Amino acid sequence: MVLAALCFTETLHAQPGSIDALLSSVETNNHSLAAYRSFIKSESLGLIAGNKLPDLQTSAYYLPFGENQTGSYFEFEISQQVEFPSVYSARNAWMSEQQKQLEYQFQILRQNTLLETQKLCLEWVYLQKIREITEKRLEQSEQLFQQIQWQFDNGETGILDLNKASIIRLDQQFAIEELTTREKNILQKLQGLNGGQEVNLTGDLYPNPLYLPVTDSLWTARLASDPQLILSQQQTKVAEQELIVEQKKLLPKLSAGVNYQGISGNNYYGFLGGVSIPLWQGRSRVVRAEAQIEYQMLQQANLQHFQKINYETEIERYQLLIQKHDQFQSAMQGLNSTALLQSAFELGEISFMDYYREISFYQEAENRLLEIEFELQVLRAELLKHEL
Fold this sequence. Notes:
Blueprint: H1 2-13, H2 19-29, H3 31-49, E1 57-63, E2 73-82, H4 85-153, H5 159-193, H6 216-225, H7 227-248, E3 254-263, E4 266-275, H8 282-332, H9 338-346, H10 352-383
Antiparallel strand pairs: 1-2, 2-3, 3-4
Helix pairs in contact: 2-4, 3-4, 4-5, 4-7, 4-9, 4-10, 7-8, 8-10, 9-10
């Protein structure tokens, strides 16, 4: 109930069209998550059924045929087999751990689904930033083409420069069309993640700041709340509880019931009781459960080790990109802007070839800076995925 209230509060605060609002919507509408919720329900019911008493056993014998001095024989019996109460309590605890395991598996699916959604949203924001500068470039390329066309008509330049100006304009037009296609594909993927519901994203700003304080507490927080690591710990708990169940099952099973026998007008009825002798299978199941615990503990240590390596790799990559981003940003301040280059060309201060070379270099640097920002945002999302 507390979790539901928190989710509801977050939804209220999330702005329509924002990434946070879409994440809340995907969590509610995603078909895979809904299907897994149903799967958890069915599995939970199956676990509960596995700890019930077995069905009553009934048997009857009617033997009217054969050579005998006593006449026909009739027998009727009802019996019930039970395990020791400690077995049921241990199995109930085991079922509880298994249900927790199912919940953690759901949390992993939820985290992966929301992370995929978040990455697609970040890519969409990145494309909006690219679109903004590409539309400006298209406008500048139109002005450039008109300028070259005028110079060509007046004999001030040749057909080669006019063709180059036309190619620049066509290249920007194609870039706009390509962006439209990519945006459409992203929205289609987001709509699929949102259970087919329409997606409406607005704005061209990333939802989180670029800079992320990197401290030891970040790894500690992941250890405490990342569902994949928690699932690994839970699998060990499940194996440990299974061992307790198998040890309890070494106790004999009990059976009790009533029996009726009738022959030649005489009848006998009373009670029956029995006890199993666990000689063959119990010990092997205990050894298997012990081996399963060892396996899960090794898997848990192995997973945590590689998760730590991946985390450190992501941190190093993040810090490198931050440094590279700051250097790029500082260096670009010393470059001529596209507006200044356009003005210098129109005034005849630089040739078309100089203009084309300078503008291409500036645009490549501008594109690279946006790529670094996008990659940093994706890395930030990966590092903080445990918060989803």
